[in-house]
Design goal:
The protein is an all-alpha fold. The chain contains eight helices and no strands. 43% of the residues are buried. InterPro entries: Mitotic_Regulator, Sel1-like, TPR-like_helical_dom_sf.
Length: 166
């Protein structure tokens, strides 16, 4: 049956050279194997099934970043966006954050939409994974809009979650 979360974690080890020689090609292969696992919804699942969905979601996010940067595959912004959307739909806060950045900047073929960016940053900052990067991005966005009270609240939240860069 395969465990997509395990496949994702193996890909991270291969990419970073943890316990083995670094191998970006093999890492990329394991990410693609993870996303080929049957998809289940991440909402209201018992923990084992939630972890399965999360492994697939994290793999989609990682593949999106690889396509975005051209690491282990040809650079392709459209495929990067497609995988970030899939990862976000499955509950990956990092994918939500990347998708929000695309909306904020009007990049990867998306029209600029600060409301959509804000909503995605908010989802990423408040879901089960609580992305501190999204909290900082949300704080920055609120600051740019002149909403300093909200900006400070999200910076404080990021610091409370251990983000020392905030």
């Amino acid at each position: 049956l395969g465990c997509p979360e395990c496949m994702y974690n193996l890909a991270l080890c291969l990419e970073r050279g943890q316990g083995c020689a670094p191998d970006v090609k093999a890492a990329t292969g394991w990410l693609f194997r993870a996303i080929d696992c049957p998809v289940v919804s991440a909402e209201d699942l018992p923990i084992p099934l939630y972890c399965r969905a999360l492994g697939i979601a994290q793999a989609h996010n990682a593949i999106g970043s690889r396509y975005n940067d051209g690491i282990g595959c040809a650079k392709d912004e459209n495929l990067a966006l497609e995988h970030w959307k899939k990862g976000a739909t499955l509950g990956c806060s990092s994918a939500m954050n990347m998708l929000a950045i695309c909306y904020e900047n009007g990049s990867h073929g998306l029209l600029e939409s600060l409301p959509k960016a804000r909503d995605l940053f908010m989802q990423a900052a408040t879901n089960l994974q609580s992305s501190t990067e999204a909290m900082v991005n949300l704080a920055r966005l609120y600051g740019e809009l002149g909403l300093l009270k909200q900006s400070l609240l999200w910076l404080d939240a990021a610091v409370n979650w251990g983000d020392t860069s905030a």
